[in-house]
Amino acid sequence: MAVFAGQGDVRRSMALLWRTPGREATRSAPGPRPGLSVDVIVDAAIAVADERGMAALSMRAVGERLGRTGMALYTYVPSKGELVDLMYDRAHAELPTGYEPAAGWRAAVTSWAWDAWAFYLRHPWVLQVSQARPALGPNEYVMLETVLTVLRAIGLEAGVLRRVVGTLFHFVRGAAQTVAETRQAPAATGVSDEEWWHARSALLKEVAPDFAERFPMVTWLESEGASRLAAEEEEEGVPYLEREAKETFRVGLTVLLDGIEAAVSRAGGSGPG
After folding, report:
1. Are 4 and 130 in contact (CB under 8 A)?
2. What is the pLDDT of residues 151-196, one digit of tens each?
3. For 3, which DSSP code?
4. Residues of CATH 1.10.10.60 domain(s) within the chain?
5. Of 34, 162, 210, 251, which one is least surrounded by beta carbons within 10 A?
């Protein structure tokens, strides 16, 4: 289920995201427990979401992690709405920002894409925050600025570059989401991937005995894929579906970068990177 940013008070949320002077509450509590602050609360909320998923996130759950009541957090973060905005933006702060331009734009974008892929899989709950309404926090803008810095010099017109960057973001998020959901499915359904596919594949042959005649291209593709899989060396501890998604990401990224390169050539830009 999608989670939409910006569900809290807009002024409080933007002030907390951008740390407007005088708007951040920070207090120390007596005794051995650490003092609370916005950052302490947000870090605890990220830990809850990382471990238990976005569905488990609540002010009470975050408070319990900090040894406090949920009510104790409201002095610092007005509601769960603002908390989601802050979590989403703070998580993005861990993304790298410096990519070596000397190796060319393709190498830099490739490194960025794999870093973003790994980031989303470390924090799969981030993928539930809809891009239809971004949080508009500073670290989200840093991520965008990083990609634009790499691609600005290739010579594409601003409108085209905007769409290219949007396509890159959609591709990376979408590919990572497939892997994240593959990892979540067994626990959420109580059925392993192997059991799920085995049961349905067997029934497919029963309910559609003429499947190969009706779908010859699908059958060919599946048989080629099975032959290739049998010839491949298994990657230790990585399920087939996840390995397949990773390979799809690698190939898809290459094709996407080839397309950007072709667009640069048509526009008379800086050419291959």
Report:
1. yes
2. 998 989 999 999 999 999 999 999 999 999 999 999 999 999 889 9
3. B
4. 10-92
5. 210
| pTM recorded for the entire structure | 0.88
> Which whole-number Å values give the CA distances from 189 to 136, 185, 195, in the listed order?
34, 6, 11
| Sequence-separated (6 or more) residues with CB below 8 Å from residue 139 | 89, 90, 91, 92, 93, 95
Topology adopted by domain 10-92: Arc Repressor Mutant, subunit A (1.10.10)
CB 27 within 8 A of CB 39: no
pLDDT one-digit tens code per residue, 31-74:
445 589 999 999 999 999 999 999 999 999 999 999 999 999 99
User: What torsion, rounded to 10 degrees, do the Cα atoms 94, 97, 98, 102 define?
Assistant: 130
**Is it true that domain 102-223+233-267 has CATH number 1.10.150.50?**
no
